[in-house]
Amino acid sequence: MFGRLMPTEGKFFELFNQHAELCVKGSKEMVALMTNFDDLEIRVHAIESIEKQADTVTYNTIELLHKTFITPLDRDDIHKLITRMDDILDLLEDAGQTISLYDIREITPEAKRLAELCLGCAEKVKAAVALLHNMDNSREILALCEEIDRLESDADHVMRAAMSKLFRDEPDVRNLIKLKAIYEILETVTDRCEDVANIIEGIIVENA
Predict the structure, then answer these.
(1) pTM for this structure?
(2) Which of 1, 6, 126, 157 has the fewest CB atoms within 10 Å, i.e. is most exposed?
(3) What's the DSSP call for residue 104?
């Protein structure tokens, strides 16, 4: 039954793929921002633009959900998946705006590493979502979800080490507060990617 519905309701999967691609684009902009502060405002603006595009995809998905009588996945799963994916870009936008508003002049290697882990997670999310239209891909999808879990765990370790170093070595309290906020936002991006992976794993269990 699941397979028969696919051709008529493929639009949902197209929208998921569009959003996942935007998550990767936003993450790449964040890594670029962390690599070169000379382009800070350009990168922040780019992330904001990508986030707005993602909002449109999210809106279109939910609108389609309301208009579609029979959906290829559970309605609640569709809603949870697209909104959790949207959370990823909301947080990337928050990170960029926070760096700009806090007037941070120099980023740490730990913050850059967290941004790289965000990108790694987003790329795995994109890969998993791209396979979701066919439950014959379930084994590969689950392997990608495990990779997301591993990357999120890596981000936890990086943040704990970064916080320890920050409270131990940073003499400027204001700078400590600023960097702490950046670390927490970026680590939360990986948490939201893990949430997406958990939703996808649930979809596989229900439909494979």
Answers:
(1) 0.92
(2) 1
(3) -
Residue 208 and residue 43: Cα distance in Å, rounded? 40
Q: How many residues does the chain have?
A: 208
Which tens digits make up the pLDDT trace of 101-122?
Answer: 998 878 899 999 999 999 999 9
Structure tokens given for 133? 């239209």
- Residues in Cβ contact with 94 at an 8 Å cutoff, skipping those fewer than 6 apart: 185
Task: Rounding to the nearest 10 degrees, give the CA dihedral for residues 91, 96, 98, 103.
Answer: 170
Residue-range domains of the chain with CATH: 2-207 (1.20.58.220)
Q: Are 184 and 159 in contact (CB under 8 A)?
A: yes
Q: Between vectors from CA 189 to CA 157 and to CA 173, what angle results, nearest 5°?
A: 65
CA 8 to chain centre: 28
Binning pLDDT at 50, 70 and 90, where does residue 10 land?
A: low
